[in-house]
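// run 5 | inverse folding | seed 20
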């Protein structure tokens, strides 16, 4: 199982809930990071300004990129630790640079590892934010060639009808 993990509460909850739902099985915890982003601001033209963009400090940009990669590796290791605690077996952590989007990268990794499915947490962006920022979970649900489990953040299990003793059909 591929678990997309960004360190957020939604991602932590997705790990816990997916383990409870799926039971013990191997998992690859993937943190997607954006390689090369530190190089972009200095090289893009700035509309409305008459002077050229600032000179690019390659050393600083490379150091920042390396720091982002190290942070992604730490995040993936933390997610793998949580996955082991939750009951997944043979858990591996992977930090991978994005292809086009996080969703595209997770789908590629799932194909490469012949994963039976993908698990992600949903951050609960409002529709306007999704139009501007995109939604990894929405893209996965609509474009993935394998099952996708999306776990919403911020909803406690005690809020569910079964946990509260209510009739699930009443909801």
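// decoded
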């Amino acid at each position: 199982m591929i678990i997309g993990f960004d360190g957020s509460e939604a991602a932590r909850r997705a790990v816990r809930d997916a383990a409870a739902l799926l039971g013990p099985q191997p998992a690859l915890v993937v943190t997607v990071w954006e390689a090369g982003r530190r190089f972009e601001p200095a090289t893009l033209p700035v509309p409305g300004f008459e002077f050229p963009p600032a000179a690019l400090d390659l050393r600083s940009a490379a150091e920042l990129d390396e720091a982002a990669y190290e942070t992604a590796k730490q995040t993936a290791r933390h997610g793998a630790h949580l996955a082991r605690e939750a009951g997944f077996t043979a858990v591996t952590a992977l930090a991978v640079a994005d292809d086009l989007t996080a969703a595209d990268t997770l789908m590629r990794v799932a194909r490469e590892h012949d994963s039976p499915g993908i698990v992600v947490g949903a951050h609960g962006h409002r529709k306007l934010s999704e139009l501007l920022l995109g939604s990894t979970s929405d893209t996965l649900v609509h474009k993935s060639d394998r099952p996708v489990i999306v776990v919403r953040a911020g909803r406690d299990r005690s809020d569910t009808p079964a946990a509260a003793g209510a009739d699930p059909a009443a909801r």
